Automatic annotation (TrEMBL):
Any GO molecular function: N-acetylglucosaminylinositol deacetylase activity
GO biological process terms held by the UniProt record: mycothiol biosynthetic process
InterPro entries: GlcNAc_PI_deacetylase-related, LmbE-like_dom_sf, Mycothiol_biosynthesis_MshB
Listed Pfam families: PIG-L (PF02585)
Enzyme class: hydrolase
Native species: Actinacidiphila yanglinensis
Free-text function comment from the UniProt entry: Catalyzes the deacetylation of 1D-myo-inositol 2-acetamido-2-deoxy-alpha-D-glucopyranoside (GlcNAc-Ins) in the mycothiol biosynthesis pathway.
Positions of region (Disordered): 277-299
Superkingdom in the source lineage: Bacteria
Name listed for the protein in its UniProt record: 1D-myo-inositol 2-acetamido-2-deoxy-alpha-D-glucopyranoside deacetylase
């Protein structure tokens, strides 16, 4: 580390995700905001998303049941998305291609010997602990223990994150605060109400429901809301970069199920480890005050 002794510690945020695109859909505004404020943002993606369903017809040949080159393609999409968000530190767990996408729960791909679902938990978490010890983040963000919506790779990403957190603590770096990604029920409902009220023609086949949104929780369980509205354009650009997986239409988007969903620039978190930050709008605690005020009149 090259920190100057006596200077305020830099803020360091680590996010652990299953596939390229999950980081942008869930945390794109948060990542852009903290990166813009000078925090060190590290993304660890566990698989290349080889089993994803491809939306644009002209890219259909990339799919796992055809050329099986979607993973390589998504490395490029993720790089473009990170450029859009202003995030420079991005890695794949154990190196690109170390763990393969396991597909949806119950499919034959769950048994692929190289897939993340079959990974040795200690080995996979050991790779993450190596990153934690190198970067020494104060904040870790990942999914809840159901992976938000039950996808094997999302469940496994949660397990890798939590075990990696414990291994790193034993090896010398305890992360101050761990958060799970969530969305408050009232916000999801309001977003869908707005989508319905637009009453215009969407290019999507239908409209999703709140049940289609991962990680919906009762409002009182939410600890922190990060307002990334000032960085919404960056999140939109990053979503467009994941073109094989996401179709964007103004303030709405659709995944491969072609059901329109509202776009959120405020992103929500539930703290599960560490002392409460004491802030409703910041993942970091008072120990990690930004070195320079972000401008404007201070109260
Ligand atoms: Zn995913």
């Amino acid at each position: 580390m090259t920190e100057v002794p006596g200077s305020p510690p830099a803020r360091r945020l680590l996010l652990v995700h299953a596939h390229p695109d999950d980081e942008t859909i869930n945390n794109g505004a948060t990542m852009a905001k903290y990166a813009a404020e000078g925090a060190h943002v590290t993304l660890v993606t566990c698989t290349l998303g080889e089993e994803g369903e491809v939306i644009p017809p002209e890219l259909a040949h990339l799919a796992a049941d055809r050329d099986d080159t979607l993973g390589e393609h998504r490395i490029g999409e993720l790089a473009a998305a990170m450029a859009a968000l202003g995030v420079t530190d991005h890695r794949f767990l154990g190196g690109a291609g170390r763990y393969r996408d396991s597909g949806m729960m119950g499919v034959a791909q769950n048994d692929h010997p190289a897939c993340l679902w079959r990974a040795d938990p200690d080995e996979a978490a050991g790779h993450l602990a190596d990153v934690i010890l190198e970067v020494r983040p104060q904040v870790l963000v990942t999914y809840d223990d159901n992976g938000g919506y039950g996808h094997p790779d999302h469940i496994q990403a949660h397990r890798v994150a939590m075990r990696g957190y414990e291994i790193a603590a034993r090896r010398g770096h305890r992360i101050d605060r761990v958060y799970e990604i969530c969305t408050p029920r009232s916000v999801v409902q309001a977003g869908f109400d707005k989508l319905a009220a637009e009453g215009r023609d969407f290019p999507f086949e239908g409209i999703a429901t709140p049940d289609d949104v991962p990680g919906v929780v009762d409002d009182e369980l939410v600890t922190v809301a990060v307002d990334g509205a000032a960085h919404a354009d960056r999140k939109t650009a990053a979503m467009r970069a994941h073109a094989s997986q996401i179709a964007v239409d103004g303030p709405f988007f659709a995944l491969s199920n072609d059901l329109g969903q509202p776009f959120f620039a405020v992103e929500y978190y539930r703290q599960v480890h560490g002392a409460p930050s004491g802030r409703a709008d910041d993942l970091f605690g008072p120990e990690q005050e930004p070195a320079v005020p972000s401008g404007g009149e201070q109260r």
